[in-house]
Write a structure and sequence with these properties.
302 residues; alpha/beta; Rossmann fold; 6-phosphogluconate dehydrogenase C-terminal fold; 2 domains; 6-stranded parallel sheet; 11 strands
Length: 302
């Protein structure tokens, strides 16, 4: 925790839901340094300032880099390599050390790209640690930000053999400081596990919503008769299409394999229905019920 308190400035590049919540959480936890909001849209930055998510705002990279010790990239995953490139081109070998991290929900391709960039640029002043706080909402923007968003939330860090140990310790401290619980995984393991735990459910929810919406007769639309079951099973499909398109394409190979798995499971269930195998249908539903109940208890009934 002391490491974070020793920092003069933390720059948050992209002060939306996650970046804004991080800024609020830093203040709530007693961070004494400056919180810098960096971005392209001055209107959004002014909104972040009004919400007290940051102390200072700027659209100029040079101002965002000045005297900062840590940059948290809270932008869509696809933008991170471009931003890292801009940072690498803006610092020289005499520059004080800056640690970079991100909050993206895909890691394998991203970490590999960024590490290659930093090696090719010989950006010795920069260290990168991949990060993914497992917290969020289908809501977007700093208006939805909460100082408590990360409390007791898992934050996955994805070090590699190239990761600087001091940089990893700092990022671990950052997330502990705002109440999160760091968990170390390789980038590849992260993408496999989170692909199944987060990306596949979002895809299924979106397809379910579209499938139900396409069912209609002269007497009415299925959508008009939906209630809490539809609401609960499709809630996450309300997330940002731009964001999720990036996530799906970044984690393409894992998602393709998981689609095969769920297609096999649906085909198997179709066969059970066709053959009136009621015992096996009930066994399958009971297995799912036990899994869901146990997990809901672990998550506090969420």
């Amino acid at each position: 925790m002391e490491q974070i308190q020793q920092l003069r400035r933390i720059t948050i590049w992209g002060v939306g839901l996650i970046g804004g919540s991080l800024g609020l959480a830093l203040k709530k936890s007693g961070f004494q340094g400056q919180r810098i909001g960096l971005g392209r849209n001055i209107g959004r930055l002014k909104n972040a300032l009004a919400h007290d998510a940051v102390d200072v705002i700027t659209t100029e990279l040079s101002e965002g880099l000045q005297d900062t010790d840590l940059i948290v990239l809270c932008t869509p995953v696809a933008l991170v390599p471009m931003l890292v490139q801009r940072i690498a081109e803006s610092v020289d070998t005499q520059h004080h050390r800056i640690v970079l991290t991100d909050v993206g929900s895909t890691k394998s391709e991203l970490v590999k790209t960024v590490e290659t960039q930093l090696q090719e640029q010989r950006a010795d002043a920069l260290s990168f640690v991949g990060g993914h706080p497992m917290a969020g909402s289908h809501e977007t923007g700093v208006g939805a930000a909460k100082a408590t968003l990360f409390e007791n939330a898992t934050c996955i860090l994805t070090p590699t053999e190239n990761t600087d140990a001091d940089a990893l310790a700092l990022i671990k401290n950052l997330w502990e400081f705002v109440g999160a619980v760091p968990h170390l995984l390789s980038p590849e393991t992260h993408d496999l596990l989170i692909g199944a735990a987060s990306h596949l459910p979002h895809l299924v929810a979106s397809i379910l919503a579209n499938t139900v919406a396409n069912v209609e007769t002269e007497a009415g639309k299925a959508l008009d008769f939906t209630a809490t079951g539809f609401r609960d099973s499709t809630r996450i499909a309300a997330g940002s299409p731009d964001l999720w398109t990036d996530i799906f394409t970044q984690n393409r190979d894992v998602l393709l394999s998981l689609i095969d798995d769920i297609t096999d499971n649906l085909t198997e269930f179709k066969t059970l229905l066709q053959t009136d195998n009621l015992a096996e249908i009930e066994r399958l539903l009971l297995e799912a019920q036990v899994i869901v109940k146990q997990r809901r208890e672990q998550l506090g009934g969420a």
